[in-house]
């Protein structure tokens, strides 16, 4: 009995050691499985990171270009001597009040004053100064609003003259004192009323423009004005220049509001009805003369009344900051809406919106160096329109990716489909045609349509550059991150399921024990 008891006790001990060994082996197996799952999860995370990193590396050059262009645009906007002049809406300015009277000294009619205000606006549009506006404020006065970037008093003098331009022959002048001064080389000589008979008047001028040439004596720029005449004026000009070229006793001079402003030399007969007058004009004088010729003479006489009144910018000078903030808010709202509807690729909308806006402002800064634009209402409207187009374009790209993925395409194939939405030849050809039309309009139209065309052209160029340097590469990065996030989520769900299955197996073992 003792031996049997010892044998039974040994069998129980052996079975206990086998159970311990089995449980230890199961624990090691589970630990190995958990470690393998952790390794697999780490590898999955590495693969997820590598896809996003690969897209960033693939488009690194485009991102560098985008950043450099942003820096260049910001520097152009903030550098001393650069930037864009602000109109009265954003930067304030000065208001000059002009009192109107009839040319004979009597009281001017309200209709004539309204016509004069309209003519002043036409003259201002013909000048290189932008953002100038004239408004009838009373039956006998006109208010001229001038941006702070310009000299309001000088501009008022340039615009407010009656603008009666005439060509006359020197040999027919009866004012002896004035004639002697002209022949002595004096400038800005005033002729007595009725002392000369013009052969061409403003009524004969059909168009006028400023022309430039190199001054051979000083090496600088010489300014002149080219006038196109109607048929009657062309015939009179041909006859007068034929006489002037055949005898030294005949000369031609140009009179503006009774004052001689130029005595052009005539060496041959001029046919075709076009004459260029260059009498040592300054830039301001040449543009002022061309503007008066284009708008025809004023029906009233205008005189500056008192001193200029200061105009304060809208919103206390914070209008520009408010406009910029509004653009940022619109971009962010667009990004939130697009990302909810189209995934992470929707965040390319605010990126394209802001980048294209910065690029457009940088381009407008360059255009402003040539006195083509001032940051006023036409420019703001143009920038707003092109900014909305940029947001729509980015959403179109993101929607192209989303649609392709919903059809079962791979991430890479969906990215290519999204790019094809805008990067095909038809898109580029259409953009070039629109740009060409805008540039033609910018040169041919008068303000404010001219300024709007420049703003639209700069906004279009800025949007196209931002699209290819930032938006399309960013879509690839964002969609890769979106796909990686989805894969990581699926991997986490799979790991959680494996862990649940393992826990159930351990519970079963404990229940069996």
What does this structure look like?
- By secondary structure, this protein is α+β, with helices and mostly antiparallel strands.
- The chain has 2 domains: 47-87 and 316-497, Multidrug efflux transporter AcrB transmembrane fold; 92-311, Gyrase A, domain 2 (2-Layer Sandwich), CATH 3.30.1360.
- The chain has 14 helices and 13 strands.
- It has helices spanning 2-58, 60-78, 88-91, 110-126, 152-160, 176-183, 231-246, 283-295, 319-342, 348-368, 377-406, 411-420, 425-444, 449-512; strands at 93-102, 133-138, 141-147, 165-169, 189-190, 198-201, 205-214, 221-229, 252-256, 259-262, 274-281, 300-304, 309-311.
- Strands 1, 2, 3, 12 and 13 form a 5-stranded antiparallel sheet that branches. Strands 5-10-9-4-6 form a 5-stranded antiparallel sheet, with helices on both faces.
- Helix 2 crosses helix 14 and helix 10 packs antiparallel against helix 14.
- The longest helix is centred in the C-terminal third of the chain and has 64 residues, at 449-512.
- Residues 27-46 and 508-513 have low confidence and may be disordered.
Offer a concise description of the structure.
This protein is of the alpha+beta class and 513 residues long. The protein has helices at 2-58, 60-78, 88-91, 110-126, 152-160, 176-183, 231-246, 283-295, 319-342, 348-368, 377-406, 411-420, 425-444, 449-512; strands spanning 93-102, 133-138, 141-147, 165-169, 189-190, 198-201, 205-214, 221-229, 252-256, 259-262, 274-281, 300-304, 309-311. The longest helix is centred in the last third of the chain and has 64 residues, at 449-512.
């Amino acid at each position: 009995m003792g031996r049997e008891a010892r044998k039974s006790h040994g069998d129980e001990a052996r079975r206990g050691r086998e159970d311990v060994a089995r449980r230890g082996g199961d624990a090691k197996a589970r630990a190995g499985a958990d470690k393998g799952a952790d390794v697999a999860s780490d590898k999955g995370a590495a693969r997820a990171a590598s896809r996003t990193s690969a897209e960033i590396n693939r488009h690194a050059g485009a991102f560098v270009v985008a950043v450099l262009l942003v820096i260049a645009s910001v520097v152009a906007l903030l550098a001393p001597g650069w930037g864009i002049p602000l109109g009265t809406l954003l930067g304030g300015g000065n208001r000059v009040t002009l009192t109107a009277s009839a040319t004979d000294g009597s009281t001017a009619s309200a209709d004539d004053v309204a016509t004069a205000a309209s003519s002043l606006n036409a003259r201002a549009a013909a000048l290189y100064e932008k953002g100038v506006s004239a408004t009838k404020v009373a039956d006998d006065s006109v208010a001229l609003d001038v941006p702070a970037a310009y000299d309001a008093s000088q501009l008022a003098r340039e615009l407010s003259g009656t603008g009666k331009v005439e060509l006359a022959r020197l040999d027919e002048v009866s004012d002896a004192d004035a004639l002697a001064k002209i022949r002595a080389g004096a400038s800005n000589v005033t002729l007595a009323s009725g002392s000369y008979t013009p052969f061409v008047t403003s009524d004969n001028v059909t168009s006028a423009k400023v022309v430039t040439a190199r001054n051979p004596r000083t090496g600088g720029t010489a300014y002149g004005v080219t006038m196109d005449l109607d048929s009657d004026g062309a015939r009179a000009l041909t006859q007068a220049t034929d006489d002037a070229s055949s005898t030294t006793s005949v000369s031609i001079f140009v009179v503006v509001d009774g004052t001689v402003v130029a005595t052009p030399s005539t060496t041959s007969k001029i046919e075709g009805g076009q004459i260029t007058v260059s009498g040592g004009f300054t830039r301001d004088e040449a543009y002022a003369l061309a503007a008066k010729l284009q708008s025809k003479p004023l029906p009233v006489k205008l005189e500056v009344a008192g001193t200029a009144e200061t105009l304060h910018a809208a919103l206390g000078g914070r209008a520009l900051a408010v406009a910029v903030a509004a653009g940022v808010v619109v971009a962010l709202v667009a990004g939130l809406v697009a990302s909810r509807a189209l995934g992470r690729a929707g965040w390319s909308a605010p990126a394209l919106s802001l980048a294209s806006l910065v690029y457009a402002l940088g381009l407008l800064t360059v255009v402003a160096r040539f006195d083509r634009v001032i940051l006023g209402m036409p420019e703001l409207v143009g920038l707003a329109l092109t900014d909305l187009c940029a947001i729509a374009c980015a959403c179109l790209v993101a929607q192209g990716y989303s649609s392709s993925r919903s059809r079962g395409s791979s991430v890479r194939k969906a990215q290519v489909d999204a790019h094809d939405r805008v990067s095909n030849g038809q898109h580029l050809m259409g953009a070039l045609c629109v740009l060409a039309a805008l540039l033609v309009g910018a040169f041919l139209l008068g303000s404010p349509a001219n300024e709007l065309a420049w703003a639209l052209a700069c906004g279009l160029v800025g949007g196209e550059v931002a699209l290819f340097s930032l938006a399309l590469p960013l879509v690839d990065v964002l969609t890769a991150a979106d796909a990686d996030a989805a894969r990581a989520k699926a991997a986490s769900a799979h790991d959680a399921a494996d862990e649940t299955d393992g826990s159930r197996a351990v519970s079963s073992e404990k229940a069996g024990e």
